[in-house]
Amino acid sequence: MSIRILSTSPLVGPALAELGARFPNLRLAAFRSPEWNAALPEAEALVVMLSEPITEADLDAAPKLRAIGTYSVGVNHLPLKACESRGIAVVNTPGVLTDATADIALALLLALTRRVAEGEALVRSGAWKGWAPDQLLGPGLAGKACGILGSGPIGQAFARRAWALGMRPLFWDRDGRDGEVDFGAGRAQRMSLAELLPLSAVLSLHCPLTDQTRGLLDRAALEKLPEGAVIINTARGGILDENAAIDLLESGRLGGVGLDVYDGEPRINPRWLQAPRAVLLPHLGSATVETREAMARLLCDGLGNALTGTRG
Ligand code: DGY
User: Fold this and answer.
1) Residue limits of the D-isomer specific 2-hydroxyacid dehydrogenase NAD-binding domain (predicted)?
2) Is 138 near ligand 1, meaning CB less than 6 Å away?
3) Which of 4, 55, 88, 256 has a CA that sits 20 to 30 A from residue 191's CA?
């Protein structure tokens, strides 16, 4: 019997099992394991994670493929043009991880500026000698400008959080639009990157990784930020020149970098592990129970529609 759905992982919640009940012959196999490779030629639908890049060669090896579902909103690991030209549907999970991802960006911002990890480590070490006037000071946020790259739902959700902290959101959009963004709690100006960077005491990345945004924050761009600026990246590692960011952290030019994503993750540039004023998380943006269940539901509904030829 043909393998209708080949998933590299179980998903959170019941949605994948329910999809398997609807379309018999769902196989679980680790990405690029011998079992996965052997099942690929028969697969009609794939389920992959954001860390599992699918190539055109995989599409060649899967002539029955009708849909690829990714358990993520990001689709930079999929060969989108090749899928389109072969009529293979791509299903992702927009909308349902907006708040969770904006929350993790906020967590990084506060952890970095209020030195949460260092404070926790100090208490756990047993070396804390008590309150001191200059202990673990960090920059305040109220009244400062917060540059946001990407004015889509996650960028806007982060703007609401920055606004609640008393910051002034500013937006840059990859489509070059200008004018104001109504982000739900207020309005903020869209501007060019050249205008936005020198104003941004905090810079938070919320745009997808595309040919246009790869390497967007190179050394020259980072040097346009104000002295002591803080960068938060919950989008994709490839948007930021990591070596340049580490150089500027080491020189004291940047005030801090908070990362949830890395270029080439889960491999991490070893310089991050020694970098000063960096907070590093293991890609937790969508990691709430409710969000992962909702992502699974959206993904499985989309795959079901693609396999039955109905529109979502
Ligand atoms: C996604 O789903 O693409 C996000 O990176 C989650 O953090």
Assistant:
1) 106-285
2) no
3) 256
CA of 283 from ligand 1 middle (Å) equals: 8
pLDDT of residue 176: 87
Could you tell me which CATH number the domain at 98-126+134-280 has? 3.40.50.720
What residue owns the CA closest to ligand 1's atom 7? 285
Level-2 CATH architecture, domain 5-95+289-308: 3-Layer(aba) Sandwich (3.40)
Tell me the mean pLDDT in the region 217-238: 98
Burial of 215 (0-12, 13-18, 19+ CB in 10 A): middle
Residue 261, SS3? coil
Who wins on pLDDT, 311 or 61?
A: 61
> Of all atoms in ligand 1, which is nearest to the CA of residue 104?
7
First to last CA, the chain: 27
Between CA 240 and CA 193 the distance in angstroms is 14
| CA dist., res. 169 & res. 247, Å (int) | 27
Pairing verdict, β 168-172 and 179-182? unpaired
Structure tokens at 102: 């904006």
Confidence of residue 2 (pLDDT cuts 50, 70, 90): low
From CA 205, how far away is CA 203, in angstroms rounded? 7
